[in-house]
Amino acid sequence: MNALNLYSLVEQDLDFSEEIAELYNAYELFINQIEPSSLIDIGCGQGDFLLQVKNEDMKTFGIDLSDEQIKICQEKGIDSACIDIADVKDKYDCATAMFDVLNYINQNELKNFIQNTYNVLNNDSYFIFDVNTLFGFEEVAQGSLNINKQDKFIGIDAYFEDEKLSTNITLFQKEQNDLYKKYNETITQYYHSKEYLEDILKDIGFEVQNALEFKLHDENNADKYIFLCKK
Question: Which among 19, 29, 138, 218 counts the fewest CB atoms within 10 Å?
Fold first, then answer.
């Protein structure tokens, strides 16, 4: 099992519901302002944001590199596929990449990702995404968490060093005959400064209209930036 699919198995147990709702609402405000006729959600997870914003006048599509997440999307009736942004053929009026999608991409691959996103957008369209700030990595994301349930045990250990967050996920999942199967994977996220992202976006051709400080966990310090960019 790869790391993305393992994360899909434990995601619902991590209880980020309040943070998810707050971030979804911030994105929805942007989308209501620009009123796109089509939207692609990159790293769509289980598709809940697409369900929240979908209306009769907007075509939506979700992509994710986890086939387990896409299975859940399709069970909900969401138009989605387990493909890379480079393989998307259609054009859209808006692209979103929520909950640190760009932080999962290292600096060697980041410019290609942003270029591929640019390529799937119509002219005068928008790219909205969020990234963790340094405070978000150092003070919020680091640490350990243990969750003990009747049919599973989850252990999370995350540490930030050399501008990388390494998150080790261990899952003991109850199977037949009261035996438990162990899964263990490490997910890596990368810190990208606001200035570094602005330079790449401008080089590719995006106009950065806003880089909003977003405070999910601390009233004095932003743990995310939400970027609003126009092609």
Answer: 29
